[in-house]
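Board notes, transcribed. Complex of a protein with S-adenosylmethionine.
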Amino acid sequence: PLLPLLRTLGAAAAGAAAAILWRRWRERRAQRLGLNVTTDAAKGLVWTCIGGALQASQLFLGDKLGLYASMKHLCEKKDSGFTVIDLAASTGLHVRWLREWCAQQAAMGVLVLLDGEGDDDADLCYILPAAFAEVLADPTSSNYDIAMIQAVPSLLARARDSIPEAFRTGLGMPYDDENIASAIDRQHTVSIRHFVIPKLLPSIADGHVLAKLESGARVADLGCGGGNLLIEMAHRFPFSEFHGYEVSDVAIEHAKKAIAAAALRNAHVHDARKAGGSIDSTPARFDLILTYDVLHDAPQPQELMIAARRALAPHGVWLIADIKCADGVRANMRDGAAKTYWAFSTCLCMASALSEPNGKGLGTLGFSP
Ligand SMILES: C[S@@+](CC[C@H](N)C(=O)[O-])C[C@H]1O[C@@H](n2cnc3c(N)ncnc32)[C@H](O)[C@@H]1O
C-alpha cells in the first residue's frame, strides 16, 4: 500500500524540483537579456532621450545664432569671463533670452559659471572652456564637431510629418532639405580637409593618384551633396577637372552657389537624373571616381556601381567611403553607436534609399564590406 503513496510523493517532488529549475532558468534568462528592467530604468531612458532632444534644440540655437563664436571671442578677450550683458552687446540679442540660454548651457556643462555672489545679470560670469570653443566654434579645427546639429530639427520634423506615412506606404523621400544638405556639407568638410586630402589621397596607389591630381585628372564625385569635396579638391588641384553628380535639387542648388561663390572654374555640378540616372555615360572618362557616404543612400546602388565602373578609365581609381558597419542586425547591435545610426537611417539614409519604388533600401548600416 506504500508504493502508490511513494510514487505520488516522488512525482510531486520531481514536479516541484522541475518548477524551481524552470523558474531559475527564466530568471537567469531575464537577467541576461535585460527583461527584468525596472520601470524606473525605463522611465530614465525615455527622459534621457527627451532631455537629449531638448538640449539639442539649445545647441542648435547656439550654432544658428552664432552664440558659440561670440562667446569664444569674448573669452579670448578676457579671462574673467563674460556676462549676458556682454553677450547681448556683442550679438545684438535680447538679454532676457540670453539669460535663460546661458543658464541652460551652464547647467548642461557647456559653459562654466564662475564662483561669486549675487544673481543679477552683472553678477553671473560665464566661461566657455577651450575644448568647447574648439568643438563648437572653430571650423578650422579637426575637432570641430557641431555641424550635424543643424540637421536635427529637420530630422525630428520628418519623424513628425512624413516618416509615419512612409512606414505605411513603404516609400521614403530624397535628401531634399537645405539644413540637412548644409549640415552634412559642413560636417564632411572637416574630414575632407584634415583627412581625405592630406592623408588619404597620398596613400592611394603609391602616390599615383596624388601625382595625377597634381598634373591634371578628370574626377567625378557621385552624390556630391552640397559640393564640399568638389570645392576643396578643385582649390587644391587647379589643373584637374571636377564633376559632381546629384539627385537632390536642394543639394544641386547648394553646390552650384558654393562653387560660384568660390569662383572655381574647374568644378561643375550635374543633375544625375539627366545623366541617365547616375553619371555621364561616356565610358572610361574619369581617372578618379568618388562615392563619399553615398552608396547606402542610393535607391539603386548596384546601378550606380555599374555606371561608376563603366565610367572609370583603365588605370582609374574608385574611392568608396561608407559607414563602417557589420553584416546584419545582431552584429551591428554590438556597436554602441548603432542606436544613433538606425535613427539616422529611418529619418534619412534608408528614407533616401527607399525614395523610389523598388529602392533597395540599404540604409545607414546596410553597406557592409
Ligand atoms: C550623405 S550625403 C553625402 C553627400 C556628399 N558626398 C558629402 O560627403 O557631403 C548622400 C548624398 O547622395 C545623394 N545620392 C543618393 N543617391 C544618388 C544617386 N543615385 N546619384 C547621385 N547622388 C545620389 C543624396 O542626394 C545625398 O546628397
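Residues 174-175, 184-185, 188, 222-225, 228-229, 245-248, 251, 272, 278, 292-294, 297-298, 304, 352 surround S-adenosylmethionine (CB under 6 Å). The radius of gyration is 28 Å.
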